[in-house]
Amino acid sequence: MHRLWVILALAVLGGCMSVSDMGVVARDQLSDAGVLDHSQTRRSTNFRLQADSFIYIAQGAFVPPGGAYPRPNVVAEEAFRGFVEYFPMVRRAAQPEGLEQALSEARGVGAHYVLYTRFAKADDRIGNLDEWSDQEAVDRLGIDSGVVQMMLIETSTRYLIDTATIRSRGGLLTFHDKKPEDLLGPPFEDYAQRLLGMSQ
User: Fold this and answer.
1) Helix (H) or strand (E) holding 110
2) Which strands form 160-169's sheet, in the order they lie side by side?
């Protein structure tokens, strides 16, 4: 009799949702609860790009407040990794640069848009024994977090197409040996999908 109830429960659940959908829902719930990494992206518009758009990605030379010193061009690198799967024509600046320089280089290579990024805030908390031996501060134990700001600008007209802010934080199960920049991959991939209209 017990086996019959289990089979019925699985049949009901199977009819409602696929296993992959259940996995996505479970991950979302654990992220919201702070157990896994979590990010939230806010956009100013719902503007969409064509998949053949040529995007030039650059990062401003801005050291974020918050006690972290990420690699100088790490935001542009992570944005490139997130975008390259969805936009075949994408190029990244080799080093941080000002907005005017980014627009000039984008025009030089024929890019339609500039995605200009910066780390607005980064808080690198103690997450492993090496960091603990360096800092030995109980109030620095915890979960990393960061804020990234972006502007999507049309190269030819300098028109501001979209602005977006990514707020990310680590999770209780995933904070070991991580830094704020390690949280940026999934939100940049999500932003690329939103620009194509693949997700909301």
Assistant:
1) none
2) 38-43, 160-169, 145-154, 113-123, 55-59, 90-92
Strand partners of residue 92:
57
Q: Which residue in 115, 117, 111, 116 sits closest to 54, CA to CA?
A: 111
Q: What angle do helix axes 74-83 and 185-196 make, rounded to 10 degrees? A: 50
* Through-space distance between the first and last CA atoms of the chain, rounded to whole angstroms: 44
State how far the alpha carbon of 164 is from the alpha carbons of 46, 104, 107, 134, 167, in Å.
11, 22, 22, 35, 10
Q: Half-sphere exposure of 64 toward its Cβ, with a 13 Å CA cutoff?
A: 26
Locate the DSSP E strands across the chain: 38-43, 55-59, 90-92, 113-123, 145-154, 160-169
What is the structure's pLDDT at 34? 46
H/E stretch holding 34: none
Averaged over 175-194, what is the pLDDT? Answer: 80
pTM for this predicted structure: 0.76
The span from the CA of 124 to the CA of 101, in Å, is 30
Map out the domains of the chain with their CATH numbers: 1-33 (no CATH), 38-196 (3.40.50.10610)
pLDDT (tens digit per residue) in 9-61: 555 555 566 655 555 444 444 444 444 556 788 999 999 999 999 999 999 98
Q: Shortest CA distance to 67 belongs to which of 117, 142, 15?
A: 142
